[in-house]
Amino acid sequence: MKETKSVAYSYLIKQLPSATVYLNTNFEVVHASDNWIKTFDLCKTNVFGKRLHKLVKHANKKWLQSLDNCLLGQRQEGLASFIDNQGNEKWLEYTHLPWYDEGENIVGVIMQVDDVSESYGDQMEIERLQTLLQSQSEIAKVGSWEYDLVTEKLTWCQMTKAIHEVPKDYDPSIEAGIQFYKQGHSRNTIAMLVHKALVEGVAFREKLQIITAGGREKWVLAAGKPFLKNGKVTRLIGTFQDIDEQVKSEIKTKESEKLLNTLVDNLPLNVYVKDKESRKILVNKAECDYLGVHDKEELIGKSDFDLYDKNIAEISRNEDIEVMRTLVPIIGKETVSIKKDETATTFLTSKIPLLGINGNATGIIGLSMDISHLKEKENELRNLINVTAVQNKKLINFAHIVSHNLRSHTANFSMLLNFLIQEKDEAEKQRIVDMLTNASDNLMQTLEDLNEVVSISTNVNVERKRLNVNQQLAKIEQNLSALLKEHEVEIVNEIHDSTVIWSVPAYFDSILLNLITNAVKYRHPKRKPVIRFSVSKRKDYTIFSIEDNGLGIDMAKNGEKLFGMYKTFHDNNDSRGIGLYITKNQVEAMGGDIRATSELNKGTTFNVFFKNEDSK
Amino acid sequence: MKTVNSIYIVDDDPITVFGISKMLGCLVECDDITSFQNGKEALDDIHNRLTSKKGLPDVIFLDINMPILDGWGFLEEFLKLDIPKKIRINIVTSSIDPADYEKWLRYKKTTHHFIDYKNKPIFKIEAQDIEHIDLAS
Touching check for A407 and chain B: CB below 8 Å? Predict the structure, then answer.
């Protein structure tokens, strides 16, 4: 009987429309409806007598715990999830009831479940999207608003309220909303846009300023879109975004850019930025001026090969590549740039690698300072220093000559006087006195020589005149006629009668006199002396040449001593070694030069360089 | 009185030549004191003595500033000659140019001859100035 009852129950329960299961106190299945078995996807399993925990895998703990509570006589309801055999998560709404027998004893649990996976999933998705929207709205500071034309109600979301800095329970109106906009351009614009949206159905999107309830100025992006029904606007919905930071940073960026441009354009340097291919992507005003263009755009995208001489461009490109490869900047390198029109400029150039975000070079920043005028000054100074150094050397040399020559005489005085004091013999005494007289005359002569040299060196600015060379020569030849006749000197003059040189007259006479007498003095004993005069012109100089066929000088040996003071190279009693020294001093005092070429036993040529009147 | 075989005085200034000769007269017995007006004359005489196997001078008084061939020019040529005998050379000059002094130091180092350096004026020649140093060799 009991058996039959049980089977009958079972059969009844099997057909229940709801998913129902009867579990004993061990949570083993006693009865189950087909729907329950289907819900848990257990059609292929014999569920009866099996523990629920075995049948349903990955059930959540709360659900299983509620079964225990049910055995204590409590009804349980809730939402549970488990993973079905396909691995899908399923959501169930469950009701657990204690199962009583006739004697009111709890013998198990009656479980009813309802598969809510589908509806629950949708709700989850909505929640997810809402959460996403909320977080996005928070991150981007985008709020929303809605205006219903029928009810004339304006709704603000929390973010919109937060942007306006109004309390959460603030109830906005369209008029109040417009009042938030900054008086003037912003308010006029929004009023006009809202009006147009309402009347003409035109959507809007505009950057405007509001004044928040807290009194702060803010940039916002207000956008609205009308919705129409039967051709009439019924609703406006829109977004409201706080873009204050963006706009302010944009303004800041613009200001920084303006500052940078002002700075870069007004630097007294050529500034440029090149890309990896060495094409200019930024230039400043100075660079434009240097390259002779009015508009920066004319230089953008140009490489050095477009702007400079090919060799210069190649050098520059190689430098660029090297700087970008090694990331080691070139600082203050002296370079000469030659433009296509062949004008050369000396620059102090720096090239600094421009680094990208990844730390690699994306180009070059170049700074060039035009130091051409400084270079010129430097060269002038260097020349001046050279001149000074040469003059210094000459002075020291001269000081030693003076000291030597004076000392040699005074030393003789001292020595002779010393002898004189000790000498007893009268005849010897007389001899010593004669020598003292001689020494004194020599000293006078030396002083005269030195005076003459000093007067030349100090008269740097003696007035020069234009002198006709042949006229001067004729005068000197006249003075030396006795000497020239005596030695049967042949004069060959190749100078044109109109030839003029620019010289101090007295110096020119002295130079001619010296050189001609030298030619005669050092004539070759075995031939008739011939002296040849000629003149040649150079850019800044007129060169007077005098060639003889005399003894000649071993230039390798004595070349540097030739114009020295008291240097003589021949056994000639009337050479004092002062003539050429004075000649050289006179020539140099006039900014000229004197050079000799000679071959032993062939003859000597002196070339005297006279500066031209129009030379610098 | 010391005895020295041969002495050269090389100077273009007759007063100096006279002075040195006079001072030597009180100091040494020497039958062969020769003076030369420049380095070239002295050098020519050295060459003559070498070819004719005559004795070379023991002491040379040498001026620096002379025409044709100056003292340094003479030294340059003289030190090239193969002369085993150690000769004393006294440079006597009025120059106070440090370059001359340094030249002397350089020459002094590069030769086995003994080179001394004196500034004019000289009032007395000491015995050690004509030391005939060639003793052992």
Answer: yes
Pick the more confident residue, B82 or A10. Answer: B82
Reduced to 3 states (helix: H, G, I; strand: E, B; else coil), residue A380 is helix
Contacts of B67 in chain A (CB under 8 A): 566-569, 575, 577
Which tens digits make up the pLDDT trace of A366-413? 999 999 998 999 989 998 898 888 888 878 888 888 888 888 889 999
Residue A522: its chain B contacts at CB < 8 A? none
Of 3.30.565.10, 3.40.640.10, 3.40.50.720, 2.40.50.140, the CATH number of A462-611 is: 3.30.565.10
CATH superfamily of A6-121: PAS domain (3.30.450.20)
**pLDDT tens per residue across span A233-290:** 888 988 999 888 888 888 888 998 899 888 888 988 999 999 999 999 989 998 898 8
With an 8 Å Cβ cutoff, is A445 touching chain B? no
In angstroms, how far is CA A259 from the centroid of its own chain? 18
Q: Which of B17, B76, B120, B124 should we substitute to test contact with A (largest number of A Cβ atoms within 10 Å)?
A: B120
**Interface contact flag, B15 A407, Cβ < 8 Å:** no
Using 50, 70 and 90 to split pLDDT, how confident is the model at A567? low
Which residues in chain B have their CB less than 8 angstroms from residue A395's CB? none
**Unique residue bearing structure tokens 């005849």:** A427
pTM (2 decimals)? 0.52
Q: Which residues of B touch A564 (CB under 8 A)?
A: none
Whether the CB-CB separation of A427 and A433 falls below 8 Å is answered with: no
Of the candidates A470, A411, A89, which has an alpha carbon nearest to the alpha carbon of residue B94?
A411
Sheet holding A344-355, edge to edge: A280-283, A270-275, A361-370, A344-355, A330-338
A570 interfaces chain B, CB cutoff of 8 Å? yes
Please state, in angstroms and rounded to a whole number, the distance separating the CA atoms of residues A600 and B100.
29
Contact B35, B21 (CB under 8 A): yes
Choose the closest CB to B19 out of A415, A569, A570: A415
Region A141-248: CATH code: 3.30.450.20
